[in-house]
């Protein structure tokens, strides 16, 4: 593949306590505003990346996996501060995908992001 949209940028980020750190490349073309139970309760907004566009830089051993419902999305939480940093899952066609919690990106301003409504509650 290797094709990047002109507005793809490299971002760094991590959990609240700093144990878990990542680097990723994304155009942030879609950021979810999902109404499912977990996104609602945790205030999660995800952007989706190809696994090769996401690198965990620190904290692999400090992550706990959280599964619910159909276990389709494997949420990765920091053991110390509890922040849901990213999740691993598969697209409907079976392709691996990383769902990144955009609130974990360094210096992000959520108010400036365009959110895409997702009706996860009724899936």
UniProtKB/TrEMBL annotation:
Keyword terms: Metal-binding, Zinc
InterPro entries reported for this sequence: CENP-V-like (IPR052355), CENP-V/GFA (IPR006913), Mss4-like_sf (IPR011057)
SUPFAM superfamilies noted in UniProt: Mss4-like
Molecular function terms from GO: carbon-sulfur lyase activity; metal ion binding
Domain annotation CENP-V/GFA: ranges: 11-119
Family: Belongs to the Gfa family.
Protein name: Uncharacterized conserved protein
Native source organism of the sequence: Bradyrhizobium lablabi
Lineage summary: Bacteria, Pseudomonadati, Pseudomonadota, Alphaproteobacteria, Hyphomicrobiales
